[in-house]
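Troubleshooting log. The previous structure file for this entry was overwritten by mistake, so regenerating from the original sequence record. Sequence copied from the archived sheet and checked twice against the printout by T.R.
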Amino acid sequence: MRVLAAMSGGVDSSVAAARMVDAGHDVVGVHLALSSAPGTLRTGSRGCCSKEDAADARRVADVLGIPFYVWDFADRFKEDVIDDFVEAYARGETPNPCVRCNERIKFSALSARALALGFDTVATGHYARLSEGRLRRAVDGDKDQSYVLAVLTAEQLRHAAFPVGDTPKPEIRAEAARRGLLVADKPDSHDICFIPSGDTQAFLGARIGIRPGAVVDAGGTVLAEHEGVHGFTIGQRKGLGIAGPGPDGQPRYVTAIDAETGTVRVGTKEDLEVAELTGERPVFTSGTPLVGAVECQVQVRAHGGLGDGVAEVVDGALRMRLNTPLRGVAPGQTMVLYRPDSDGDEVLASATIVSAR
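Regenerated output below.
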């Protein structure tokens, strides 16, 4: 089988490529250049896709004895991931750029090019598992990335491989060391890869500009002025620009954002509770839509935000009624449905949240 190994320069994708070589496949490594100025995208463990990362990936390919190429996807990444991220925040939403990158870059643009060049499979270092075409959580629950892969279609998954999903992360590092790969102790990347400073608000402010608005309480009383709704997310407690807690002495949280009027509403922790989620553009990873009401678990953040309930498709949208309310769910987030079984949690579907109430 001809395999294109996506090599970020990190330990996970390096071991994934090595395992595909061990399995006897015809493997070619490729590093995605996602920035027109690659030297600016890494600061220690923050960021990715720097010249350092490309060089690390090339050295691993040399050790493995496989061909290696760098493909320039910078323009596509800017349009489909960075611009999408900025526009979503300007609308008062809370997007996940890793979800968009997997959906539109790694398993759309990259996979399409790989198949056009005659490759059968794209292998990555994601922590997830595929079993009989079903996407499942990784063995290492702390590193599981099935959430950010749940936007992939059955056809995309048919041409995907996740070679490290059956192994805990410490064992992956140990394996890399045994193989003599210099990335064995390389720090994991954190936060948003294209914001190496970690200052998301400054990044957004530089691109969106000042759009004044008001922070108001549940009764509509203006508590503070702000420079743009992009500085807020549902559930946010700090940095609201208001003096002290509410009249009841309890902390106040962002409970709603209206980008058109620039209004940021704050309230109590209880005001954040939602019992029903609605998501648009559903993707059913097995290729089979849900039929009727299905008991399952929903995850609304890459790490945490889990709840049990009943899901069904209503007028083309994915609707989830929760047994116990979740807090701090925002439009723009991805809802991912899981069904536990004997082989581990299986991903059923995903959708972009448009309503949480």
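The mean pLDDT is 93. Archived copy saved in two places this time.
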